[in-house]
């Protein structure tokens, strides 16, 4: 049901690079968003309220957006002379929904690596349940480094209109994160026939075997909806870094992690099924896939 | 002596400003940045190429610049280990196109989302902002989105694309992709001509007098007029020393200038200091921002510095009239935006997609032990990454960001760039704008 008033939004930051704010500012239907939402405060923009005035007398509002990793340690994060809990708690208590944008707010992300005991996501510390909070019923995670602007804006719109937003075990909206980054990758055929990408910078070959691509193991619809409405990491010839998962960033991101010289299997595919099929596919030499995609001789 | 403490907001984060007053004027100021994320520490002992994925995350607004500084530092490591890395012209051009997209977007975003609202507020204290409200804001937001879409054709995504690898770029666009990019860029140019400059790109980039800019009503001429009304044509002057260590289409080689005298510069004279930081002294320190100096002197970096060393006609005229005041600093960003649009259009028209995208180094990265430096002229100025790698593992990673050059703290007898610009001011409102005239990036300052 569509409410007849604008939903109110307060955007705050934990330990962050501002990447989710800047990603959100790339949303291509911003007028539509603005017709439904009133941004009471955003740290990078000139908004009607200051954070101090909102903290002075917190009133009920609709969406608390949190970007950046969570910490209770004042020496890791202070804003306006306040520790992160002193900013977060009064607002979290008054918010209808808490939306964690980006992998830092969701799982701790890259900045968690500095001190994994004391820096985490809202409800997760990497894959472990229990982050800054042990439990909280109104949290939605929109991971990604950064989160895609459509993931943020459209999830907020769906929540506002009380549409069913199914969440997975990581509290990610399923309509976005049931897909894998692999879905829609232009190099799918090379994956099917196990044709390796010989080197980066070419149109041909799959980056899963040697270049660390995590597309088949990463939940995100990047290659369905595309970044900046036009491309994606894999479409620009760069391996998927698995940035929407709880273990981002893994170690040695540009190398394929192998066991007995075999790569890990794609998400939810048994070793037996995958290696059997891979062995069969690899036993054929498909001439077309060994050649350049665009043959300049003709 | 009176001491006041203020928070400077909306600078990609915030900073605390401690001001010492004498006779109602600022005698000394300290700018304090608290939010350190420890990226240099996180990178220690990690595989070298991980830096390509980690360093863009220093900053949400200049992630491509960090990716580029990182890959150049890695390439320099290979070169120091006697493995020459050569780039195709195509790879060089694509790197520049993606970097330019980031700079163009930054300058539009900064002018419309930061400078104009801050000036509106100074002009009219009851002003409450225009984000998500005024048509002008939506038009600028659309232009930003389009600019980054153009860049993403090559970089895959913005922010945090990882489109570079040692020896080139990862993308291999077809000619139709490039035509698409040209079409998108034309829309951005149209916005800038109509709304920002008030002139065609050709006319505007041919100007060499401040008077010419004022002849047409535009966001820029309104900004200039407003800045003059509030004395920013004489406030915010700093050392009048400029530095541009990275390469650019605007000039040849690394350069510095004292006032209008331009001389070659060399990165070997750059020194980094931890004075006044919590790193050096956890109890006496007061900021996480390091300090960078050139031959032990503070130099300003950024678009004004680039325009000054390039002897750009229009900014040289502003400088002749107003020196390095806030007005010149702000205008230089808009003028640079125009030159970037022209250059990017030219690069897209001339891009030869038939060249190779990447010539990877032959040596196995796991056998690489060396040191390398990568320099990039990022939106806010010279960005330096220095890597020490041993057997393919990072031993030491050091980052000097543009905002460290401009916003670090100096001493009473050797004022930093921002301190020099603040001393003598008599109002906090003006102080706030002068700090912001540097296009501060709080997250970069402390990484």
Q: Give the % helix of chain A.
A: 25-40%
- Per CATH, the architecture of the largest domain in chain A is 3-Layer(aba) Sandwich
* Beta-strand percent range of chain A: 15-25%
Shape of chain B: globular
Radius of gyration of chain B: 21 Å
Total domain modules of chain A: 2
Number of strands of chain B: 13
Strand order across the largest sheet of chain B:
1-2-3
Quote the average pLDDT of chain A.
96
Low-confidence stretches of chain B: none
Number of helices of chain B: 16
Biggest beta sheet summary of chain A:
5 strands, parallel
The helix fraction of chain B, in percent, is: 40-55%
Distance between the termini of chain B: 34 Å
Topology:
The complex is a heterodimer of chains A (298) and B (447).
Chain A: E1 7-13, H1 19-24, H2 30-36, E2 37-41, H3 51-56, E3 61-67, E4 70-71, E5 78-79, E6 82-83, H4 84-92, E7 95-101, H5 103-107, E8 119-120, E9 124-125, E10 128-129, E11 139-142, H6 149-160, H7 174-177, H8 188-192, H9 222-225, E12 258-259, E13 262-263, H10 271-283, H11 287-290
Parallel strand pairs in A: 1-2, 1-3, 3-7, 7-11
Antiparallel strand pairs in A: 4-8, 5-6, 9-10, 12-13
Chain B: E1 2-8, E2 15-22, E3 25-32, H1 39-43, H2 50-54, H3 63-80, H4 89-123, H5 135-155, E4 164-165, E5 168-169, H6 175-197, H7 201-205, H8 210-213, H9 219-229, E6 241-244, E7 255-258, E8 261-264, E9 270-273, E10 291-294, H10 303-309, H11 313-322, H12 326-350, E11 370-378, E12 381-390, E13 393-400, H13 402-407, H14 417-422, H15 428-436, H16 442-446
Antiparallel strand pairs in B: 1-2, 2-3, 4-5, 6-7, 7-8, 9-10, 11-12, 12-13
Describe this structure in words.
The complex is a heterodimer of chains A (298) and B (447). Chain A has 298 residues and is of the alpha/beta class. Chain A folds into two domains: 7-175, NADH:ubiquinone oxidoreductase-like, 20kDa subunit (Rossmann fold), CATH 3.40.50.700; 179-283, Irregular (Cytochrome-c3 Hydrogenase, Chain A, domain 2). Chain A is 25% helix and 15% strand. Chain A contains eleven helices and 13 strands. Chain A has a five-stranded parallel β-sheet, with helices on both faces. In chain A, β12 (258-259) and β13 (262-263) form a beta hairpin. Chain B has 447 residues and is an alpha+beta fold. Chain B has a single domain, classed as Cytochrome-c3 Hydrogenase, chain B, CATH 1.10.645.10. Helices cover 44% and strands 17% of the residues of chain B. Chain B is built from 16 helices and 13 strands. Chain B has helices at 39-43, 50-54, 63-80, 89-123, 135-155, 175-197, 201-205, 210-213, 219-229, 303-309, 313-322, 326-350, 402-407, 417-422, 428-436, 442-446, and strands spanning 2-8, 15-22, 25-32, 164-165, 168-169, 241-244, 255-258, 261-264, 270-273, 291-294, 370-378, 381-390, 393-400. In chain B, β1 and β2 form a beta hairpin. In chain B, α11 packs antiparallel against α12. The longest helix of chain B is centred in the first third of the chain and has 35 residues, at 89-123. Chain B is globular, with a radius of gyration of 21 Å. At the A-B interface, α1, α2, β2 and β5 of A face α2, α4, α5 and β5 of B.
